[in-house]
Amino acid sequence: RDDVESRGLGDVYKRQIRIDGTIKGKIHTSGRLVVGNTAKIEGDIECVNVDVIGVVIGNITAEAAVTLKAPARIVGDILSSVLSIEEGVFFDGKCQMVKKDIRETKEVQK
Q1: CA–CA distance, 106 with 37 (Å, rounded to integer)
Q2: What's the pTM value of the predicted model, to 2 decimals?
Q3: β-strands 45-52, 32-35 pairing
Q4: At a CB cut-off of 8 Å and minimum separation 6, what does 33 contact?
Q5: Euclidean distance between CA atoms 94 and 80, whole angstroms
Q6: CA–CA separation, 42 vs 92, rounded Å?
Q7: Strand intervals (E) in 14-89
């Protein structure tokens, strides 16, 4: 299997996607994002739901839920209403749990 590397700014996807390669740049999806165990993302993520098994170096904002599954490694902050972390995950950052519209919360933080 060949490694895939993509570089971009503001990559937008409108459906569920799975990443198993390297992405450098922001990812925005209106669906579910799965960061596979061989994936490395260097950039911020904005999505509805995200399952992380690989590496994310950047902030994660999820409207619904963030699920971190071993052996995931996350260096960055998380903003979501639901967070699930399995044993064996490395998480270096802070987490803000919100129950209201995340877009509204992000505006208040600015």
Answers
A1: 29
A2: 0.82
A3: parallel
A4: 13, 16, 17, 18, 19, 27, 45, 47, 49, 50, 51
A5: 11
A6: 14
A7: 17-19, 22-24, 27-29, 32-35, 40-42, 45-52, 55-57, 60-68, 73-75, 78-80, 83-85
Q: Measure the CA–CA gap between 43 and 26, rounded to whole angstroms.
A: 5
- For 7-24, letters b (16+ CB in 10 Å) and e give eeeebeeeeeeebbbbbb
Secondary structure letter of residue 2 according to DSSP: -
Average pLDDT over residues 80-95: 97
pLDDT at 3: 47
**What single DSSP character describes residue 44?**
-
**Residue 13 — very low, low, confident or very high, per pLDDT cuts 50/70/90?**
low
Token duo for residue 92: 């270096």
Q: Is the pLDDT of residue 90 over 80?
A: yes
In the DSSP assignment, the letter for residue 77 is -
How many residues are there in the chain?
Answer: 110
Q: pLDDT value at position 94?
A: 98
